[in-house]
Amino acid sequence: MSVLVLRAKQLLTLAGERPAVGEDLFAPMKKLENAALVVRDGLVADVLSRGNERWPAGAQTRDLGEVCLAPACVNAHTHLQLSHLRGRTVWRKGFVAWITNLIPLLAEPVDADAIEDACADVAAAGTGYVGDISGSLQNGLALTDKSCREAGLNARHFCEWFGFASSASDAKSPWPARCREDITDNPDLQARCAPAAHALYSTAPETLRAARRHCAQTGSVFTFHLAESPEETQLLTTGEGLLRDVYEGRVLPENWRAPGLRPLDYAEQLQLLGTGVLAVHGVQLRHKEIRRLAESGTALCLCPRSNYNLGLGDPPVNDLLENGVLLCLGTDSLASNADLDVRREALALREEMDVPPEALIRMLTINGAAALGIENAGQLAPGFPAAFCALPPALTL
Ligand SMILES: [Zn+2]
Q1: How far is the CA of 303 from the centre of ligand 1 (A)?
Q2: Which residues, other chains included, contact 392 with Cβ-Cβ below 8 Å and sequence gap of 6+?
Q3: How many Å apart are CA 392 and CA 397, to the nearest integer?
Q4: 262 C-alpha to center of ligand 1: Å?
Q5: Cα 77 to middle of ligand 1, angstroms
Q6: What residues does each domain of the chain span?
Q7: Ligand 1 centre and the CA of 288: distance in Å?
Q8: CA of 113 to the centre of ligand 1 (A)
Q9: How far apart, in Å, are the Cα atoms of 238 and each of 79, 202, 241, 288?
Q10: 225 C-alpha to center of ligand 1: Å?
Q11: Of the candidates 109, 102, 130, the residue with the CA atom closest to the CA atom of residue 335
């Protein structure tokens, strides 16, 4: 049995904490100085201060130096399959310019090397867990899963339905066509997957509802992009706008009618919200909608750098923090972000909106684990995986 002692100047274990919302996000956090993690077979066996009599005799010790360690981060929203698009999309010109530029690029084949490199970068950035959107490209799921495992990332794959057309085989399967081949006859991979949907304006309402129902029945997390751009709100409320022009004849069916509702109202009408649901973005949410989102128990993943890069504005972070939404963080893809280091999402919120480190560390760890439905993550308590990250100085307490 191998025992390793990891020493660090500071250690935040979050031991005993539960996912935090509202005031609990800001609660003081216990910090250990000159601390050590005793790791046995990959699990935390003990947490010690220097000189403690429980220090295991003869254990191999590694000094990690002047760092503050926290549980490994959770990147709750990525699109690893789009990693080959780094630097190839149009930024700061609005959502429609970005998506217009993106659509033809999605015809390119899956790029195994780009996915592998991205997974290695994610792991090197202190992330242990990812919620990854799959299904953007044909047969990318098994490849992405393999790269995640090789990089030591614990992945939840969200197999995304997109579009309004539905074939007979679609009707029979909970899995979208692009993931189906990879997942069939692979129960091991299937256990890490859940059906998901792209967005309210891009996916048929019956498909959205079916995916949500399947997730509720199987106890898996259902995720979708919600209230990301002003054009989304415009399309859903009026049926008009630049997004209509791009999707007309390409995604939207001829007889498509706008529901005439704002995104949150429409998501409620389709019964998509609730505990076990992870909505992504929420940039366009208004105060009363935020209250309803919180009451529904829906988790929300913020991707502030992606929102900035696309020119969508800032998510209403203070309102979300104050009104009890279960918040976590994600980078989104390399098609809308410069890197996949989720700690930099926290740094952006620290620097731009003065969000306190306690809240950000909880969003990065224990809340992200809860949002992805991953038990045994987000803490460095005995029995938990010894998966940790070094916090950037601006996030230390
Ligand atoms: Zn996304």
Answers
A1: 8
A2: 343, 347
A3: 11
A4: 19
A5: 6
A6: 3-71+384-395, 73-371
A7: 24
A8: 21
A9: 30, 15, 8, 21
A10: 6
A11: 102
Q: What is the DSSP string of 168-232?
A: HHHHH-SS-HHHHHHHTT-HHHHTTEEEEE-BTTTB-HHHHHHHHHHHHHHT--EEEEES--HHH
For residues 82 and 136, the answer to whether their CB atoms sit within 8 Å is yes
Cα(69) to ligand 1 centroid in Å equals 28
Give the Cα separation of 61 and 71 in Å (integer): 19
Q: Does domain 3-71+384-395 have CATH number 2.30.40.10?
A: yes
Say if domain 73-371 classifies as CATH 3.10.450.50.
no
Distance 161 CA to ligand 1 centre (A): 13
Ligand 1 centroid to 304 CA: how many Å? Answer: 12
In this prediction, residue 1 has a pLDDT band, given cuts at 50, 70 and 90, of low
CA of residue 264 to ligand 1 center, whole Å: 17
pTM for the structure as a whole:
0.97
78 CA distance to ligand 1 middle (Å): 6
In angstroms, what is the span from residue 343 Cα to ligand 1's centroid?
17
Share of the chain above pLDDT 90, in %: 92
Q: What is the pLDDT of residues 15-28, one digit of tens each?
A: 999 999 999 999 99
Sign of the torsion angle spanned by Cα atoms 187, 134, 228, 372? positive
- Report the C-alpha gap between 24 and 18 in whole angstroms: 9
The CA distances from residue 309 to 18, 110, 304, 335, in Å, are 32, 24, 9, 10
Report pLDDT digits (tens) over 120-144: 999 999 999 999 999 988 889 999 9
Identify the H or E element spanning 129: strand 127-134
Say how many Å lie between the CA of residue 3 and the centre of ligand 1: 40
**Average pLDDT score over the chain:** 96
